[in-house]
Structure formats: structure tokens, C-alpha cells
Specification:
Blueprint (H helix, E strand, L loop, with lengths): L10 E7 L2 E6 L5 E5 L29 H6 L6 E5 L3 H12 L3 E5 L11 H14 L2 E3 L4 E6 L4 E6 L4 E6 L1
Parallel strand pairs: 4-5, 5-6
Antiparallel strand pairs: 1-2, 2-3, 7-8, 8-9
Length: about 160
């Protein structure tokens, strides 16, 4: 992230004004205020949810959002299973860093729990940036094929996506 001039701060934060946040880092008593040029993304943290019914997913040791934002390098190809806010955000970040990104969702649209127009606009923006968006696609199997190589099998398209990272 540092190579792309992105600051990742883990701690306790609050919105301090328009395009401003105030953060108290994990092991600090001091608060630091940040001002963004364009926007502020507040990632409040959560526990990752592994989709049920994907054979071999946990054994393949996939990244959770925490590993994705902690990496020091951009993978050759990032496949994101799930096109909610977190999956869409990661796709946006990694394609912006120059990586190849495939975003897969079983639903009929990105951000399926939000207004259809919002999902369509986010999908259009992702596609314009170069993200391969696969709607209506259910991942059924993930195989680890040696060090750093995964194979995703898709039910809807009966195709496989190779991933190397």
C-alpha cells in the first residue's frame, strides 16, 4: 500500500469533518487527524465469512480482507468471491494498483443488497477500470495446485479460472 501512497491506519477513529478523520492508533493514546483529497473510506472491521458449499476453499487458505490490505505486493491475478461492499472495494483497489482482478458473485448484480441502480453504477465503473465481473456465477471448488497457484471451478459458466499469486 505504501508504494501506492496509501496509508493504512488500524485503530479507533471518528469522522472529524468533511473529508477529515481522527484516529487513535491501536497502541497509542495520541489522536492523529487526517484529511483526504477526495474521499474517506471507513473500514470498521468485521470477521470474514467463508461462503458455504465451496469445496476446498478454506484448505486453499484464501486471503481475508485483512490479509489483502496488509500485503506489500500486488498479486498477478486477484479473484474476489463476493461483490458486496468489501469485495467491490478490494477489486477497485487492486485494479487501481495495476493487478488483474476478477470479481465473482452468485447474484445478478454487484452490491446486490443495495439499490439496483447503485450496483449497476459500481459494476460499470469496475468494468471500465478493467475488472472482469462475473454475475450469476457460483464458485463450487477451489484447488491449490502447488505453491502460489489456485484453480477456481465455476458452476454457472462451467469454466475454470487460474490464479497465481
Amino acid at each position: 500500500m505504501a508504494d501506492h501512497k496509501v496509508d493504512v491506519v488500524r485503530g479507533f477513529g471518528r469522522i472529524a469533518g468533511v473529508k477529515k478523520i481522527s484516529v487513535q492508533a491501536w497502541e497509542s493514546k495520541e489522536r492523529v487527524e487526517y484529511e483526504a483529497r477526495h474521499a474517506v473510506a471507513v473500514s470498521t472491521g468485521s470477521e470474514p465469512i467463508f461462503p458455504a458449499g465451496i469445496h476446498g476453499l478454506q484448505e486453499a487458505k484464501p486471503w481475508t480482507p485483512r490479509e489483502a490490505v496488509s500485503t506489500s505486493s500486488v498479486p498477478e491475478h486477484l479473484i474476489t468471491v463476493g461483490a458486496g461492499p468489501v469485495g467491490s472495494e478490494l477489486a477497485t483497489a487492486f485494479v487501481g494498483f495495476g493487478g488483474k482482478v476478477t470479481l465473482i458473485t452468485v447474484g445478478g448484480e454487484v452490491l446486490g443488497r443495495f439499490a439496483p441502480e447503485a450496483g449497476r453504477r459500481v459494476r460499470d465503473a469496475l468494468v471500465k477500470k478493467g475488472v472482469d465481473v462475473r454475475l450469476g456465477t457460483r464458485v463450487v471448488k477451489v484447488d491449490r495446485k502447488g505453491k502460489g497457484r489456485l484453480k477456481f471451478s465455476s458452476l454457472a459458466e462451467r469454466s475454470c479460472l487460474g490464479l497465481r499469486f
